[in-house]
Amino acid sequence: MLKDSIDLPNENLDFSISKGKTVDSIINFLDVKLPGFTSDLNTTAKNEDDISQECCIYLDREARESLFMFHFQHKYEGGRSSDFSVISAKKFSSKEPLFVIEAKRLPTPGTGRQQEYVHGNLGGIERFKREYHGSGLSRSAMFGYIQKETCDHWLGEINSWSSPNAKVKSFDFYGLIELYTFFQLQDLGVSPNAILTVRQAICDETGVRYPFATFEMLSDGQKIWQRFQDAITNADRSLQTNFIGAIEQFARKIDFGKNHEACLFFPRGRNSDVVVSPHHQFGQPVIEGTNIIAETLYLMYLSGESIEFISHLYDLDPKSVNDAISFYKIAA
Predict the structure, then answer these.
(1) What's the CATH code, domain 266-331?
(2) HEC profile of the chain
(3) What is the largest CA-CA distance in the chain?
(4) 45 falls in which pLDDT band (50, 70, 90)?
(5) Average model confidence (pLDDT) for the chain?
(6) Which of 277, 300, 303, 302 is closest to 290 using CA atoms?
(7) What are the two backbone dihedrals, phi and then psi, of residue 106, each rounded to the nearest 5 degrees?
């Protein structure tokens, strides 16, 4: 027989793939591809399973060249099932899920079921916490099929259901921008207490919460200098010129919104595709115009994947992948 004519190595064959790396890829894949899913979600007559089946078919087609594939309604022992499972697409690999997804319509139809996305007999998040779904997995996901209201509305609702005092927390983007000015002032000998005192005075005068993250202050470093010149040790013309130049050069790496507050930061300058935004991935560095975390691309590169493969997997220009790699190489 054919198998008898092949010399196999004595050691056990390992057809598995790195679960952690693959889960990162799945999450970034969903960030990129899920917005492209088109279904008539506003038709409330369409039931949840119908939408999930359409979504699963769409995702599986999009993932055809990936290391994973999507499966509709994964069955568990005992009769339970999850809406989606994601398994390895490699031959001979395990059929056990690497990642599972539950989905709920928003709003949930019927009476007494308004908070079913979070808790209740069929509550999505609660079923994960009780390990009815995703047992043994470090990460899983919930989809919300929005049929009324907006994403922002449901984000607020879901957070309020999770905890009466819950608030959406994100990376302190404005604090990050302000830190640059803090460090520049400290290098000039201004004490932290003096910086905080003057900063609070500016807040009181202008009503601005983050004065060192505004266009008015950062685009004209002279204004900051004037506020602190009495506290700057050995203040001279060259120090003043260097300080103002550093602040205004930093401002050129920032986009300012309609309220004149910083809204986008280019840590490696505007020639790089790596950006930081309070509206994407909780302020982690991402590729501009996407939700793809730059560090994920770097880690894939370190694990041996080629730039060509990574750019193809995430539908990115190779320059974006190179920028992510360069960003973390320099940071290291």
Answers:
(1) 1.10.10.10
(2) CHHHHCCCCCCCCCCCCCHHHHHHHHHHHHHHHHHHCCCCCCCCCCCHHHHHHHHHHHHHHHCCCCCEEEEEEEECCCCCEEEEEEEECCCCCCCCCCEEEEEEEECCCCCCCCCCCCCCCCCHHHHHHCCCCCCCCCCCEEEEEECCCCHHHHHHHHHHHHCCCCCCCCCCHHHHHHHHHHHHHHHCCCCHHHHHHHHHHHHHHHCCCCHHHEHHHHCCHHHHHHHHHHHCCCCCHHHHHHHHHHHHHHHCCEEECCCCEEEEECCCCCCCCEEECCCCHHHCCEECCCCCEHHHHHHHHHCCCCHHHHHHHCCCCHHHHHHHHHHHHHHC
(3) 90
(4) low
(5) 81
(6) 277
(7) -125, 115
Extents of the domains making up the chain: 10-162, 173-264, 266-331
**Identity (one letter) of the amino acid at 199?**
R
pLDDT of 11 over the 60 cut: no
Residue type, 248: E
Under 8 Å between Cβ of 305 and 318: no
* φ/ψ of residue 100, rounded to 5: -125, 155
Quick check: 181 pLDDT over 70? yes
Neighbours of 112 (CB within 10 A): 8
pLDDT digits (tens, 9 = 90+) for 96-154: 888 999 998 888 887 667 788 887 766 788 888 777 788 888 888 999 888 888 877 78
Nearest to 86 by CA among 61, 58, 65, 56: 56
pLDDT level of residue 297 (50, 70, 90 thresholds): very high
User: Quick check: 83 and 60 in contact, CB under 8 A?
Assistant: no
Per-residue confidence band for 6, with pLDDT thresholds at 50, 70 and 90: very low
Contact between 261 and 213 under an 8 Å Cβ cutoff? The reply is yes
Single pTM value for the model: 0.54
pLDDT for 231 equals: 74
